[in-house]
């Protein structure tokens, strides 16, 4: 009996110990602080009201890599200090992104999440959605673990190539989330080394900091020509190959955007709320005296603007425009003048590409104090080494007394109670729009609109504004004019840009007209539907 009682006590003690151990989560196990029952905080760590969610995501057929907490903590603290130095250099003081401390280790808090699927279910291309789904499920079950809108997910490498290069899952930014790779050489001891290990480390750690930039709202952009010798490589261009080895920096535009980032500010205000903003007037000219593009204008906004940033994005070798085609965008930054104006001078000597006919997009972005950035895109080119700037706001004719004389179709139910109607094309608001009929008996190109000015007017050209968001944007269109509404004379065929903001199309010579007809012939998305925000004359 005594032996049985002793055995029972030992068994119960063992079960009790096992239960207590199971209460220690994977996010606490194997941490020396737990064993020593100490509370450590790294004095170099910056913690904000809201901080970067740092996730270590492990597919079901992999395990954590050795010493990952220590290695990644060291690197994240180094990266935090690097961002701080760049913000300071750009005039914003010692601002940087916040990181939560792991008081058990003195490092950075890293949340370990073990995936339910093997690594083949989380491939580089298209795998981020499956990862995000499981992380969101974790946050739903542990809501206090998510402290901000910004998340960095680090995934252990899947394999090595024959030359020792690691390969793995998603490695890019998707909105305010970003993905990076961990491998055994992701260690601060390799920082700055010029051997194989150091070069490989610079690519993968620099890549992590680059993708983190995307997760912190930063687009691609490159250094000005004059900055090559003084500052080196812009992180958001090709800094993933230079960080820690040679001069690498954040541009002034990067810093302006980060200045209003949620996790760069130790406050409790609301970030990323809705913003209604537009550039109401813009003037662009080339000063031969200053050898600079000079841009000025006025804007309206529902949320205060702290900075205006200007991205000059060349379409080099017909690479296209948009995300992942904007690495070589050269940028400038200016502060708001009062509450509604901006001005900037951009020396063309700082633009690398100036060949005749090269297409440029000038993206004028309003950086709002709640962290949002609103963008309007304009187009220009070069001829004989001089920029050709034709997008300045024109003095448009008043639309008072204008009516829609006829239209091929309009949408009266599927676009809500306000939009879809043809009359929205001349209501003076770029926030409303006309849409071709699609809910029943959908119409196809060509789509036609005829506007009656009420009396004969003289105009030099037509203004056109695509729908906000560029959904169903019109590409090719024709303009005709008439004095009686019956007999129309063709003016010209035009190609609208797939950009938001007023676009201007010259008639060549002044026209006297009471009616004008716009025939939309094709769309940028190749589908049968069309939408436009505004039509006007100047």
TrEMBL record:
Domain F5/8 type C: 392-537
InterPro entries per UniProt: FA58C, Galactose-bd-like_sf
TM segment ranges: none
Record key words, sorted: Signal
Signal peptide (from-to): 1-18
Pfam families: F5_F8_type_C
Protein name, entry field: F5/8 type C domain-containing protein
């Amino acid at each position: 009996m005594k032996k049985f009682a002793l055995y029972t006590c030992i068994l119960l003690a063992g079960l009790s110990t096992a239960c207590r151990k199971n209460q220690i989560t994977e996010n606490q196990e194997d941490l020396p602080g737990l064993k020593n029952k100490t509370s450590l905080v790294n004095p170099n760590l910056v913690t904000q009201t809201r901080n970067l969610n740092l996730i270590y995501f492990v597919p079901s057929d992999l395990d954590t890599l050795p010493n990952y907490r220590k290695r990644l903590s060291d690197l994240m603290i180094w990266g935090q200090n690097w961002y701080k130095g760049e913000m300071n250099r750009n005039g914003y003081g010692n601002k940087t992104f916040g990181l939560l401390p792991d008081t058990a280790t003195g490092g950075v808090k890293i949340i370990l999440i073990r995936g339910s699927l093997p690594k083949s279910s989380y491939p580089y291309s298209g795998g981020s959605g499956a990862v995000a789904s499981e992380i969101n499920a974790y946050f739903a079950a542990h809501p206090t673990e998510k402290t901000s809108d910004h998340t960095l997910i680090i995934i252990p490498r899947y394999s090595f190539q024959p030359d020792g290069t690691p390969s793995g899952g998603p490695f890019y930014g998707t909105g305010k989330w970003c993905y990076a790779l961990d491998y055994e050489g992701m260690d601060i001891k390799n920082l700055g080394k010029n051997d194989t290990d150091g070069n490989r480390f610079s690519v993968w750690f620099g890549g992590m900091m680059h993708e983190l930039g995307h997760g912190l709202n930063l687009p691609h952009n490159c250094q000005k020509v004059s900055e090559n010798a003084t500052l080196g490589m812009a992180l958001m261009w090709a800094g993933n190959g230079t960080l820690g080895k040679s001069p690498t920096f954040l541009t002034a535009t990067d810093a302006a955007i980060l200045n209003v980032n949620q996790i760069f500010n130790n406050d409790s205000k609301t970030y990323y709320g809705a913003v209604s903003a537009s550039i109401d007037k813009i003037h662009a000219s080339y000063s031969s005296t200053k050898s600079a593009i000079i841009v000025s204008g006025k804007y309206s906004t529902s949320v205060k603007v702290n900075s205006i940033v200007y991205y000059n994005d060349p379409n080099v070798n017909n690479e296209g425009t948009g995300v992942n085609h904007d690495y070589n965008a050269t940028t400038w930054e200016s502060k708001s003048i009062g509450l509604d104006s901006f001005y900037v001078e951009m020396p063309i000597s700082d633009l690398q590409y100036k060949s005749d006919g090269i297409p440029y997009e000038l993206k004028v972005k309003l950086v709002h104090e709640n962290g949002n950035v609103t963008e309007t895109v304009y187009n220009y080119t070069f001829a004989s080494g001089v920029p050709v700037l034709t997008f300045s706001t024109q003095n448009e004719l008043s639309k008072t007394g204008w009516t829609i004389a006829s239209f091929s179709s309009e949408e009266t139910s599927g676009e809500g109670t306000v939009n879809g109607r043809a009359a929205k094309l001349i209501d003076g608001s770029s926030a409303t729009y006309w849409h071709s009929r699609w809910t029943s008996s959908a119409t196809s190109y060509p789509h036609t609109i005829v506007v009656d000015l009420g009396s004969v007017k003289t105009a030099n050209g037509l203004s056109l504004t695509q729908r906000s968001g560029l959904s169903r944007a019109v590409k090719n269109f024709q303009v005709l004019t008439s004095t009686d509404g019956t007999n129309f004379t063709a003016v010209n065929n035009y190609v609208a840009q797939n950009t938001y903001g007023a676009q201007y199309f010259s008639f060549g010579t002044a026209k006297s007209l009471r009616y004008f007809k716009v025939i939309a012939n094709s769309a940028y998305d190749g589908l049968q539907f069309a939408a436009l925000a505004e039509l006007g004359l100047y």
